[in-house]
Amino acid sequence: MAGSSFGTLVRLTTFGESHGKAIGGIIEGIPAGFSLDYNQIQHDLDRRKPGQSAIVTQRKESDKVQFLSGIFDGKTTGTPIGFTIENEDQKSADYTELQKAFRPSHADFTYQQKYGIRDYRGGGRSSARETACRVVAGAIAKQILAQKNIRIDAFVYQVGSLKWTGEWKSELKTISEANNVRVPSEELAVEMENLIREIRKEGDTIGGGIRCVITGVPTGLGEPVFDKLHTELGKAMLSINAVKGFDFGSGFDSISMKGSEHNDLFTTDGTTKTNFSGGIQGGISNGMPIDFRVAFKPVATLIQEQDTINEDFEAVKLMGKGRHDPCVVPRAVPIVEAMAALVILDYYLMQKAYKK
Ligand SMILES: Cc1cc2nc3c(=O)[nH]c(=O)nc-3n(C[C@H](O)[C@H](O)[C@H](O)COP(=O)(O)O)c2cc1C
User: Fold this and answer.
1) Cα-Cα-Cα-Cα dihedral of 163, 167, 171, 176, to 10°?
2) Which residue positions form the known binding site for NADP(+)?
3) C-alpha separations of 117 from 1, 58, 154, 274, 277 in Å
4) Mean pLDDT, residues 262-284
């Protein structure tokens, strides 16, 4: 099992390594006849790409996608959509020390144990460069969902201990997308950016949180037992590099609540007065906004000397090199949206189990 595919009806397979010739993917199951807006796809790639601001990795990639199949006269044909994105700015020499030594908390050790060989340049297949392919597929899914009035908004709500606790409204997206951090508060954007800059100066990294709100989802999406809607969303989110946690609705906060506080009481139009369920009950969408959070760890590559081991399990020192993200959440926002879009489109196409 190569483990490179995701989804049921809408299926994404990706290939490529950080410092190989190109990355790319094949998207299957996209219905025929949808007109695609290429600028929108590039816009999402630009939101993810390295070098976009002073607080992300300074690798310079234009991330231009080239479609090879599945689109004719600007419309999807229902056949597999193949695409590639070239790798343009490789600095393989930055990674020579990683041929033998393992970065603590990266994937170097586990890949070596599993395969006995690894492309150590920039993390190879374990690099988050692969997520550009998810953004391409997700941007297509998002466009199809937008035509069904389903909207997906992700934003940063936490960096280190700095936290945004406001009430989300889609109009806040103009604020979150106008600052380098992608947080819906101009004041917090400055504080968070300063914190990330300080952390970078120390050669260190810091964790962060992303919240995602999906509106316009009809009732009835999701399978009742194993393939619950939140199960698949959780899998999608936990498959993103550096993700350490997923919760939806009240999530882990529900532990300290009473049922009388937590129950979402119905109104007579079938909506609920509160949304502690996060838009999903019994694994099936209830028509309220789907609302979840994703926790990202402080990434592993530090520009500091660390104790580690080499392939012979000898203790060695390793000094991190290369261009790295001091905090991944600003770049991960479009990745979260992309993975959410793929799941929702997949379940949308499976739809309700009865026709009204
Ligand atoms: C957008 C994004 C950018 C990332 N950039 C880096 C980076 O510059 N350096 C690094 O060590 N890890 C980075 N990571 C995380 C690694 O890809 C990830 O930690 C590694 O593959 C090991 O997987 P795990 O952390 O999920 O266990 C990034 C992750 C994301 C989502």
Assistant:
1) 0
2) 48
3) 16, 28, 36, 51, 44
4) 98
Query: What mean pLDDT value characterizes the chain?
Result: 95
Rounded mean pLDDT, 260-289: 98
Q: Which domain holds residue 117?
A: 5-350
pLDDT digits over 183-235, tens only?
999 999 999 999 999 999 999 999 999 999 999 999 999 999 999 999 999 99
* Residue 354 banded pLDDT, cuts 50, 70, 90: low
Q: What is the distance between the alpha carbons of residues 304 and 319, in angstroms, rounded to a whole number?
A: 6
Residue 356 resides in a domain: no
Residues with C-beta less than 6 Å from any ligand 1 atom: 57, 106-107, 123, 126-128, 131, 240-242, 297, 299-301, 324-325, 328, 331-332, 335
Confidence bin at 356 (pLDDT 50/70/90):
low
Please indicate, yes or no, if residue 57 is contained in any of the structural domains. yes
Residue 129 backbone class (left: φ over 0; alpha: ψ -120 to 50; beta: rest): alpha
**Domain presence at residue 335:** yes
Annotated binding site for FMN: 125-127, 241-242, 282, 297-301, 323
Q: Indicate the SS3 state at residue 40.
A: helix
- Asked whether 326 and 55 are in contact (CB, 8 A), the reply is yes
User: What is the domain count for the chain?
Assistant: 1
Q: Which two tokens stand for residue 334?
A: 């479009």
Give a yes or no: residue 261 inside a domain: yes
What is the pLDDT, as a whole number, of residue 321? Answer: 83
C-alpha 197/C-alpha 293 separation (Å) is 24
Look at residues 125, 119, 92 and name the one whose alpha carbon lies nearest to residue 17. 125
The CATH number of the domain holding residue 143 is 3.60.150.10
**Total Cβ atoms within 10 A of residue 104:** 15
- pLDDT greater than 90 at residue 236: yes
